[in-house]
Design a protein that fits this description.
Blueprint: H1 17-34, H2 42-59, H3 66-73, H4 82-95, H5 106-116, E1 134-135, E2 141-143, H6 151-164, H7 169-183, H8 190-205, H9 214-220, H10 222-235, H11 239-277, H12 283-290, H13 294-306, E3 310-313, E4 320-323
Antiparallel strand pairs: 1-2, 3-4
Helix pairs in contact: 1-11, 2-3, 2-4, 2-9, 4-5, 6-7, 7-8, 7-11, 9-11, 10-11, 11-13, 12-13
């Protein structure tokens, strides 16, 4: 595939003061969470992934509850509209690949679309070949969509721009999301894929972003989501949408930070209780006792020692822990 030059495609957006401020705020929180990755336990990751899938599908009018979505993903039988059940199964397969796809790969994007829309459209895994349009409630054409023959090239250019522009990933991922919706590359699934691929781009920046349920915030502010798109369309500049998405990312991260804080607090109490009972316990045994990875345990031990709540008496072999009450 012939790659375009970096200057061939420049999506329209303005780097406003609000955007810069939000990027700084999000980066600070993301860095805090990166240092606490050991506390993002498998249960919390699963819970957030379920919330992500449920919310992303609910935005597209899927009526299944979070409990029903959970049951389907866990392999239990659920009674509901067959199409909506299929959407959940498809999303499960697609999100299982989120840390394996290449952010700049058109082939991977089409592969995920194929999974996301399997059994739902005849064009699963393919760019649309027909004209599309977005209409308002009165049937008026709001956005005609990019001509079908231009879609593959524009998506390639957009992915290449994200990969080579040097723009901060928080900003470029939001611009990608807006431009992706503007191009309207699929007959079905463009909304789900736009949100999914922004997560792919964010996870390439900070891996734990794959577990942040941004879609849940978007769902709670769904009318603002569409309004931000319309405002960006009206001024031919993506910054209203970029500001909206950055606020959603910030608030979703704050929610994860709060959950992790609670998780850390519970883990610390467990660690100290186990050490009091078995001062000579090894890190490996401590990991099993408290339900954290060895690395997660080591991070918590380091923080406890730094805070003066725990001392190591002697070496790693033959030594023991002392809790400072």
């Amino acid at each position: 595939m012939k790659k375009p030059s970096p200057s061939a495609y420049k999506p329209p957006y303005t780097l406003t003061d609000k955007v810069v401020s939000l990027v700084s705020e999000i980066t600070e929180t993301a860095t805090h969470l990166e240092l606490r990755q050991g506390a993002i336990a498998p249960l919390l990751r699963k819970k957030n992934r379920l919330r992500t899938i449920h919310s992303s599908l609910a935005i597209e009018q899927n009526t299944l509850t979070l409990q029903q979505v959970t049951d389907i993903i866990d392999g239990r039988r659920v009674f509901g509209p067959p199409r909506e059940i299929q959407e959940v199964k498809n999303a499960k397969a697609a999100y299982a690949l989120i840390d394996k796809v290449r952010p700049d790969s058109v082939q991977d994007l089409l592969k995920v679309h194929g999974l996301m829309t399997a059994g739902l459209t005849e064009q699963a895994g393919r760019f649309r070949t027909v004209a599309v349009g977005v209409f308002d409630g009165d049937g008026r054409l709001v956005h005609p969509g990019t001509p079908a023959e231009l879609v593959p090239g524009q998506i390639r250019d957009l992915l290449f721009w994200v990969a080579t522009s040097g723009v901060h990933p928080l900003v470029s991922s939001c611009v990608f999301h807006y431009e992706f919706e503007f191009i309207h590359p699929f007959t079905d699934g463009k909304g789900r894929m736009g949100r999914y691929w922004q997560t792919v781009l964010l996870a390439a920046w900070r891996p734990h972003m794959a577990w942040v349920p941004v879609e849940e915030i978007v769902r709670s502010r769904q009318q603002d989501y569409y309004r931000a798109i319309q405002q960006s369309d009206a001024i031919a500049d993506a910054h209203p949408f970029v500001e909206y998405m950055l606020e959603a990312i910030r608030d979703a991260l704050d929610g994860v930070k709060a959950s992790v804080g609670e998780n850390v607090a519970k883990s610390v109490v467990k660690i100290l209780d186990v050490i009091r009972a078995s001062p000579d316990i090894t890190r490996a045994r401590l990991s099993k006792e408290v339900g954290l990875s060895v690395r997660g345990v080591e991070r918590n031990l380091a923080l406890l020692k730094k805070d003066g709540r725990l001392r190591r008496i002697g070496g790693n072999k033959g030594g023991h822990w002392q809790v400072v009450d």
